[in-house]
Amino acid sequence: MNFVFNNPTKLLFGTGKIAELHKEVMQGKKALLLMSNGKSVHMNGSYDKTVEQLKIAGVSYVEFAKIMENPLMEVCEEAGAFAKENGCDFIVALGGGAVLDSSVAVAVMATNPGKLWDYVYGGTGKAQPLANKPLPIITIATSSGTGSEMNEWGVICKEDTHEKIGFGNEACKPVIAVVDPTFMTTVPVKYTAFQGFDALFHNTEVMMSTSLNILSEAIALSAIENIAKYLPRAVADGNDREAREHVAYASTMAGITMQLTSTTAQHSMEHAMSAYHRNLQHGAGLIIISKEFAQCFVDRHACDDRFIKMAKAMGVDSPTSPQDFVDALVALQKACGVDDLKMSDYGFKKDECMTLAINARETMGGLYPANPYEMTDEDVAGIFERSYK
Ligand SMILES: [Zn+2]
User: Which range marks the domain in which residue 123 is found?
Assistant: First the structure.
Protein backbone atom coordinates (compact mmCIF):
# COMPACT_ATOMS: atom_id res chain seq x y z
CA MET A 1 0.00 0.00 0.00
CA ASN A 2 3.03 2.37 0.15
CA PHE A 3 3.91 4.45 -2.85
CA VAL A 4 5.03 7.87 -4.08
CA PHE A 5 3.06 9.37 -6.92
CA ASN A 6 4.64 12.38 -8.56
CA ASN A 7 3.61 12.95 -12.15
CA PRO A 8 3.24 16.66 -12.84
CA THR A 9 2.96 16.25 -16.64
CA LYS A 10 -0.22 17.79 -18.04
CA LEU A 11 -1.59 15.27 -20.52
CA LEU A 12 -3.65 16.33 -23.53
CA PHE A 13 -5.04 12.98 -24.68
CA GLY A 14 -7.30 12.13 -27.60
CA THR A 15 -8.06 12.61 -31.26
CA GLY A 16 -7.50 16.21 -32.35
CA LYS A 17 -5.92 17.30 -29.04
CA ILE A 18 -2.89 18.79 -30.82
CA ALA A 19 -5.12 21.75 -31.77
CA GLU A 20 -5.24 22.78 -28.11
CA LEU A 21 -1.50 22.98 -27.52
CA HIS A 22 -1.26 26.73 -28.21
CA LYS A 23 -3.59 27.44 -25.29
CA GLU A 24 -1.05 26.02 -22.84
CA VAL A 25 1.63 28.08 -21.13
CA MET A 26 4.74 27.76 -23.28
CA GLN A 27 8.08 27.46 -21.52
CA GLY A 28 9.69 30.48 -23.20
CA LYS A 29 9.92 32.21 -26.56
CA LYS A 30 12.15 29.83 -28.49
CA ALA A 31 11.95 26.04 -28.80
CA LEU A 32 14.26 23.32 -30.00
CA LEU A 33 12.03 21.18 -32.21
CA LEU A 34 13.57 17.74 -31.76
CA MET A 35 12.73 15.09 -34.36
CA SER A 36 13.99 11.87 -35.91
CA ASN A 37 16.06 11.54 -39.07
CA GLY A 38 13.07 9.88 -40.81
CA LYS A 39 10.08 11.21 -42.70
CA SER A 40 7.23 10.03 -40.48
CA VAL A 41 6.37 13.41 -38.92
CA HIS A 42 5.86 14.80 -42.43
CA MET A 43 3.79 11.79 -43.52
CA ASN A 44 1.49 11.75 -40.50
CA GLY A 45 0.83 15.49 -40.48
CA SER A 46 2.21 16.05 -37.00
CA TYR A 47 5.00 18.37 -38.15
CA ASP A 48 2.65 20.83 -39.86
CA LYS A 49 0.21 20.80 -36.97
CA THR A 50 2.94 21.28 -34.35
CA VAL A 51 4.55 24.17 -36.22
CA GLU A 52 1.13 25.77 -36.60
CA GLN A 53 0.53 25.52 -32.85
CA LEU A 54 3.92 27.05 -32.04
CA LYS A 55 3.23 29.94 -34.41
CA ILE A 56 -0.19 30.64 -32.86
CA ALA A 57 1.45 30.58 -29.44
CA GLY A 58 4.09 33.08 -30.61
CA VAL A 59 6.99 30.67 -30.18
CA SER A 60 9.91 30.61 -32.61
CA TYR A 61 11.89 27.40 -33.12
CA VAL A 62 14.97 25.78 -34.57
CA GLU A 63 14.88 22.20 -35.85
CA PHE A 64 17.18 19.33 -34.96
CA ALA A 65 16.12 16.27 -36.97
CA LYS A 66 18.87 13.69 -36.49
CA ILE A 67 17.59 11.29 -33.80
CA MET A 68 17.93 7.66 -34.86
CA GLU A 69 16.45 4.38 -33.60
CA ASN A 70 18.38 3.26 -30.50
CA PRO A 71 19.66 6.87 -30.10
CA LEU A 72 23.35 7.42 -29.48
CA MET A 73 24.90 9.53 -26.72
CA GLU A 74 26.79 11.67 -29.25
CA VAL A 75 23.71 12.82 -31.14
CA CYS A 76 22.03 13.87 -27.88
CA GLU A 77 25.14 15.87 -26.96
CA GLU A 78 25.13 17.47 -30.41
CA ALA A 79 21.46 18.41 -30.04
CA GLY A 80 22.12 19.84 -26.58
CA ALA A 81 24.95 22.01 -27.92
CA PHE A 82 22.70 23.10 -30.80
CA ALA A 83 19.96 24.16 -28.35
CA LYS A 84 22.52 26.11 -26.32
CA GLU A 85 24.01 27.87 -29.39
CA ASN A 86 20.56 28.87 -30.53
CA GLY A 87 19.40 30.14 -27.15
CA CYS A 88 16.47 27.72 -26.89
CA ASP A 89 14.29 28.07 -23.80
CA PHE A 90 12.65 24.65 -24.02
CA ILE A 91 12.36 21.48 -26.06
CA VAL A 92 9.44 20.28 -28.14
CA ALA A 93 10.07 16.58 -28.73
CA LEU A 94 7.99 15.43 -31.69
CA GLY A 95 8.13 11.78 -32.65
CA GLY A 96 8.22 8.20 -31.45
CA GLY A 97 9.99 6.65 -28.49
CA ALA A 98 13.53 7.37 -29.68
CA VAL A 99 12.86 11.11 -29.96
CA LEU A 100 10.95 11.33 -26.68
CA ASP A 101 13.66 9.34 -24.91
CA SER A 102 16.39 11.53 -26.36
CA SER A 103 14.69 14.72 -25.20
CA VAL A 104 15.67 13.87 -21.62
CA ALA A 105 19.36 13.65 -22.53
CA VAL A 106 19.19 16.72 -24.77
CA ALA A 107 17.48 18.76 -22.04
CA VAL A 108 20.32 17.89 -19.66
CA MET A 109 23.14 18.50 -22.15
CA ALA A 110 21.70 21.88 -23.20
CA THR A 111 22.37 23.30 -19.75
CA ASN A 112 25.10 21.13 -18.21
CA PRO A 113 28.83 20.84 -18.92
CA GLY A 114 30.75 17.70 -19.88
CA LYS A 115 29.48 14.49 -21.42
CA LEU A 116 26.14 12.74 -21.00
CA TRP A 117 27.81 9.72 -19.40
CA ASP A 118 29.01 12.02 -16.56
CA TYR A 119 25.36 12.00 -15.40
CA VAL A 120 24.39 8.41 -16.15
CA TYR A 121 23.80 5.96 -13.32
CA GLY A 122 24.76 2.36 -14.00
CA GLY A 123 27.33 0.83 -16.33
CA THR A 124 30.36 3.10 -16.88
CA GLY A 125 28.33 6.24 -16.06
CA LYS A 126 29.88 8.63 -13.53
CA ALA A 127 26.60 9.29 -11.68
CA GLN A 128 27.34 12.97 -11.08
CA PRO A 129 24.48 15.20 -9.94
CA LEU A 130 23.28 17.78 -12.48
CA ALA A 131 24.95 21.19 -12.09
CA ASN A 132 22.06 23.04 -13.74
CA LYS A 133 18.35 22.62 -14.25
CA PRO A 134 17.60 20.91 -17.59
CA LEU A 135 15.48 22.66 -20.25
CA PRO A 136 11.73 22.09 -19.85
CA ILE A 137 10.25 19.48 -22.21
CA ILE A 138 6.98 19.28 -24.14
CA THR A 139 6.38 15.88 -25.73
CA ILE A 140 4.19 15.13 -28.75
CA ALA A 141 3.97 11.37 -29.25
CA THR A 142 3.52 9.96 -32.75
CA SER A 143 3.64 6.27 -31.81
CA SER A 144 2.45 4.07 -28.95
CA GLY A 145 5.21 2.21 -27.17
CA THR A 146 7.71 3.66 -24.74
CA GLY A 147 5.40 5.77 -22.59
CA SER A 148 8.24 8.29 -22.31
CA GLU A 149 5.88 11.12 -23.16
CA MET A 150 4.75 10.95 -19.54
CA ASN A 151 7.92 10.32 -17.59
CA GLU A 152 11.46 11.39 -16.93
CA TRP A 153 13.13 8.37 -18.52
CA GLY A 154 14.93 7.91 -21.78
CA VAL A 155 17.07 5.09 -23.08
CA ILE A 156 20.38 6.09 -24.64
CA CYS A 157 23.18 4.04 -26.23
CA LYS A 158 26.95 4.29 -25.91
CA GLU A 159 28.31 2.33 -28.80
CA ASP A 160 31.96 1.74 -27.85
CA THR A 161 31.09 0.09 -24.52
CA HIS A 162 27.90 -1.69 -25.74
CA GLU A 163 25.77 0.13 -23.20
CA LYS A 164 22.07 0.86 -23.62
CA ILE A 165 20.94 2.52 -20.42
CA GLY A 166 17.80 4.05 -18.98
CA PHE A 167 18.71 7.63 -18.10
CA GLY A 168 16.48 9.98 -16.17
CA ASN A 169 16.23 12.78 -13.71
CA GLU A 170 13.26 14.03 -11.77
CA ALA A 171 13.79 17.49 -13.26
CA CYS A 172 13.18 16.02 -16.74
CA LYS A 173 9.52 15.13 -16.31
CA PRO A 174 7.77 16.67 -19.33
CA VAL A 175 5.67 19.75 -18.56
CA ILE A 176 3.08 18.92 -21.21
CA ALA A 177 2.44 15.71 -23.18
CA VAL A 178 0.23 15.56 -26.26
CA VAL A 179 -0.99 12.09 -27.24
CA ASP A 180 -3.10 12.47 -30.37
CA PRO A 181 -3.88 9.13 -32.04
CA THR A 182 -4.46 11.00 -35.33
CA PHE A 183 -0.71 10.84 -35.88
CA MET A 184 -0.48 7.09 -35.30
CA THR A 185 -2.56 5.84 -38.23
CA THR A 186 0.47 5.88 -40.55
CA VAL A 187 2.76 3.79 -38.30
CA PRO A 188 3.66 0.69 -40.39
CA VAL A 189 2.20 -2.69 -39.39
CA LYS A 190 5.46 -4.14 -38.07
CA TYR A 191 6.20 -1.12 -35.88
CA THR A 192 2.64 -0.96 -34.60
CA ALA A 193 3.09 -4.51 -33.32
CA PHE A 194 6.59 -4.01 -31.90
CA GLN A 195 5.68 -0.79 -30.13
CA GLY A 196 2.38 -2.17 -28.88
CA PHE A 197 4.17 -5.13 -27.30
CA ASP A 198 6.70 -2.79 -25.70
CA ALA A 199 3.76 -1.01 -24.07
CA LEU A 200 2.30 -4.37 -23.05
CA PHE A 201 5.55 -5.48 -21.41
CA HIS A 202 5.94 -2.23 -19.47
CA ASN A 203 2.65 -3.15 -17.85
CA THR A 204 3.20 -6.91 -17.49
CA GLU A 205 6.62 -6.29 -15.95
CA VAL A 206 5.11 -3.81 -13.51
CA MET A 207 2.62 -6.57 -12.61
CA MET A 208 5.44 -9.05 -11.95
CA SER A 209 7.52 -6.48 -10.06
CA THR A 210 8.33 -6.74 -6.36
CA SER A 211 7.40 -3.05 -6.02
CA LEU A 212 3.85 -3.41 -7.37
CA ASN A 213 1.33 -1.33 -5.41
CA ILE A 214 -2.43 -0.90 -5.40
CA LEU A 215 -2.36 2.00 -7.87
CA SER A 216 0.21 0.67 -10.34
CA GLU A 217 -1.68 -2.65 -10.41
CA ALA A 218 -4.97 -0.95 -11.26
CA ILE A 219 -3.41 1.07 -14.07
CA ALA A 220 -1.34 -1.82 -15.44
CA LEU A 221 -4.30 -4.22 -15.60
CA SER A 222 -6.37 -1.61 -17.42
CA ALA A 223 -3.55 -1.06 -19.92
CA ILE A 224 -3.02 -4.81 -20.45
CA GLU A 225 -6.74 -5.28 -21.09
CA ASN A 226 -6.77 -2.49 -23.70
CA ILE A 227 -3.69 -3.76 -25.54
CA ALA A 228 -4.89 -7.35 -25.67
CA LYS A 229 -8.25 -6.25 -27.02
CA TYR A 230 -7.18 -3.53 -29.47
CA LEU A 231 -3.60 -4.19 -30.62
CA PRO A 232 -4.59 -6.95 -33.09
CA ARG A 233 -7.10 -4.51 -34.59
CA ALA A 234 -4.54 -1.70 -34.88
CA VAL A 235 -2.13 -4.14 -36.54
CA ALA A 236 -4.79 -5.42 -38.96
CA ASP A 237 -5.96 -1.92 -39.92
CA GLY A 238 -3.78 1.07 -39.09
CA ASN A 239 -6.68 3.40 -39.80
CA ASP A 240 -8.87 1.82 -37.11
CA ARG A 241 -9.05 5.00 -35.04
CA GLU A 242 -10.76 3.39 -32.07
CA ALA A 243 -8.06 0.72 -31.85
CA ARG A 244 -5.30 3.33 -32.12
CA GLU A 245 -6.87 5.36 -29.31
CA HIS A 246 -7.04 2.41 -26.94
CA VAL A 247 -3.49 1.26 -27.66
CA ALA A 248 -2.27 4.85 -27.20
CA TYR A 249 -4.06 5.02 -23.87
CA ALA A 250 -2.39 1.82 -22.69
CA SER A 251 1.03 2.98 -23.80
CA THR A 252 0.77 6.36 -22.10
CA MET A 253 -0.59 4.83 -18.90
CA ALA A 254 2.51 2.62 -18.80
CA GLY A 255 4.53 5.82 -18.63
CA ILE A 256 2.75 6.44 -15.33
CA THR A 257 2.94 2.90 -13.92
CA MET A 258 6.68 2.83 -14.60
CA GLN A 259 7.06 5.83 -12.32
CA LEU A 260 5.17 4.05 -9.57
CA THR A 261 6.77 0.64 -10.00
CA SER A 262 9.98 -0.57 -11.60
CA THR A 263 10.00 -2.81 -14.66
CA THR A 264 12.00 -6.04 -14.45
CA ALA A 265 15.16 -7.60 -15.91
CA GLN A 266 13.29 -8.36 -19.14
CA HIS A 267 14.10 -4.76 -20.07
CA SER A 268 17.75 -5.14 -18.96
CA MET A 269 17.98 -8.21 -21.18
CA GLU A 270 16.55 -6.48 -24.24
CA HIS A 271 18.86 -3.50 -23.75
CA ALA A 272 21.81 -5.89 -23.89
CA MET A 273 20.43 -7.42 -27.09
CA SER A 274 20.05 -4.14 -28.96
CA ALA A 275 23.30 -2.75 -27.53
CA TYR A 276 25.11 -5.56 -29.36
CA HIS A 277 22.78 -5.64 -32.37
CA ARG A 278 21.71 -2.09 -33.08
CA ASN A 279 19.42 -3.19 -35.93
CA LEU A 280 17.12 -4.85 -33.39
CA GLN A 281 14.00 -2.85 -32.51
CA HIS A 282 13.32 -2.65 -28.77
CA GLY A 283 9.84 -4.15 -29.03
CA ALA A 284 11.06 -6.99 -31.24
CA GLY A 285 13.78 -7.91 -28.75
CA LEU A 286 11.26 -8.00 -25.92
CA ILE A 287 8.86 -10.16 -27.93
CA ILE A 288 11.65 -12.65 -28.67
CA ILE A 289 12.45 -13.29 -24.98
CA SER A 290 9.03 -12.66 -23.46
CA LYS A 291 7.64 -16.19 -23.42
CA GLU A 292 10.69 -17.73 -21.76
CA PHE A 293 11.05 -14.79 -19.38
CA ALA A 294 7.51 -15.23 -18.07
CA GLN A 295 7.88 -19.03 -18.09
CA CYS A 296 10.88 -18.74 -15.77
CA PHE A 297 8.71 -17.12 -13.09
CA VAL A 298 5.66 -19.28 -13.81
CA ASP A 299 7.71 -22.47 -13.33
CA ARG A 300 8.94 -21.21 -9.97
CA HIS A 301 5.48 -20.08 -8.84
CA ALA A 302 7.04 -16.66 -8.20
CA CYS A 303 3.76 -14.69 -8.42
CA ASP A 304 0.97 -17.05 -9.51
CA ASP A 305 -1.91 -14.77 -8.54
CA ARG A 306 -0.57 -11.90 -10.62
CA PHE A 307 -0.18 -14.06 -13.72
CA ILE A 308 -3.78 -15.19 -13.26
CA LYS A 309 -4.96 -11.57 -12.96
CA MET A 310 -3.05 -10.71 -16.16
CA ALA A 311 -4.53 -13.70 -18.00
CA LYS A 312 -8.00 -12.46 -17.04
CA ALA A 313 -7.15 -8.93 -18.28
CA MET A 314 -6.02 -10.48 -21.55
CA GLY A 315 -9.44 -11.98 -22.07
CA VAL A 316 -9.00 -15.54 -20.75
CA ASP A 317 -12.30 -16.77 -19.29
CA SER A 318 -11.93 -17.85 -15.64
CA PRO A 319 -8.15 -18.46 -15.67
CA THR A 320 -6.94 -20.84 -12.98
CA SER A 321 -3.25 -21.31 -13.71
CA PRO A 322 -0.33 -18.88 -14.23
CA GLN A 323 0.37 -20.82 -17.42
CA ASP A 324 -2.83 -19.25 -18.82
CA PHE A 325 -0.91 -15.95 -19.04
CA VAL A 326 1.91 -17.47 -21.09
CA ASP A 327 -0.64 -19.08 -23.43
CA ALA A 328 -2.50 -15.76 -23.81
CA LEU A 329 0.77 -13.98 -24.53
CA VAL A 330 1.68 -16.44 -27.29
CA ALA A 331 -1.85 -16.18 -28.73
CA LEU A 332 -1.58 -12.37 -28.82
CA GLN A 333 1.78 -12.62 -30.58
CA LYS A 334 0.17 -14.89 -33.18
CA ALA A 335 -2.78 -12.50 -33.59
CA CYS A 336 -0.33 -9.67 -34.30
CA GLY A 337 1.91 -11.74 -36.61
CA VAL A 338 5.03 -11.53 -34.43
CA ASP A 339 5.22 -15.06 -33.02
CA ASP A 340 8.09 -16.15 -35.21
CA LEU A 341 10.80 -13.49 -34.77
CA LYS A 342 14.27 -15.03 -34.82
CA MET A 343 17.40 -13.84 -33.03
CA SER A 344 19.46 -15.29 -35.89
CA ASP A 345 17.69 -12.93 -38.34
CA TYR A 346 19.21 -10.04 -36.40
CA GLY A 347 22.71 -11.55 -36.47
CA PHE A 348 22.76 -13.17 -33.02
CA LYS A 349 24.85 -16.31 -32.46
CA LYS A 350 23.85 -18.81 -29.81
CA ASP A 351 27.21 -18.57 -28.03
CA GLU A 352 26.53 -14.90 -27.20
CA CYS A 353 23.96 -15.74 -24.52
CA MET A 354 26.26 -15.43 -21.49
CA THR A 355 27.86 -12.22 -22.88
CA LEU A 356 24.37 -10.74 -23.13
CA ALA A 357 23.47 -11.92 -19.62
CA ILE A 358 26.56 -10.30 -18.13
CA ASN A 359 25.98 -7.05 -20.04
CA ALA A 360 22.33 -6.97 -18.88
CA ARG A 361 23.35 -7.12 -15.21
CA GLU A 362 26.33 -4.77 -15.52
CA THR A 363 24.43 -2.13 -17.48
CA MET A 364 20.86 -2.39 -16.19
CA GLY A 365 21.28 -4.36 -12.95
CA GLY A 366 19.13 -1.75 -11.25
CA LEU A 367 16.02 -3.55 -12.49
CA TYR A 368 16.98 -6.97 -11.06
CA PRO A 369 15.58 -6.38 -7.57
CA ALA A 370 12.16 -6.01 -9.25
CA ASN A 371 12.23 -9.67 -10.36
CA PRO A 372 9.86 -11.80 -8.28
CA TYR A 373 12.55 -14.48 -8.17
CA GLU A 374 16.28 -13.78 -7.81
CA MET A 375 17.73 -14.49 -11.23
CA THR A 376 21.34 -15.54 -11.71
CA ASP A 377 23.36 -14.87 -14.86
CA GLU A 378 22.84 -18.57 -15.70
CA ASP A 379 19.06 -18.11 -15.46
CA VAL A 380 19.27 -15.10 -17.78
CA ALA A 381 21.58 -16.83 -20.26
CA GLY A 382 19.19 -19.81 -20.19
CA ILE A 383 16.27 -17.57 -21.18
CA PHE A 384 18.28 -16.25 -24.13
CA GLU A 385 19.22 -19.81 -25.13
CA ARG A 386 15.68 -21.16 -24.98
CA SER A 387 14.46 -18.09 -26.95
CA TYR A 388 17.08 -18.58 -29.65
CA LYS A 389 15.88 -19.50 -33.11
ZN1 LIG B 1 10.34 -0.69 -23.22
Answer: 10-183
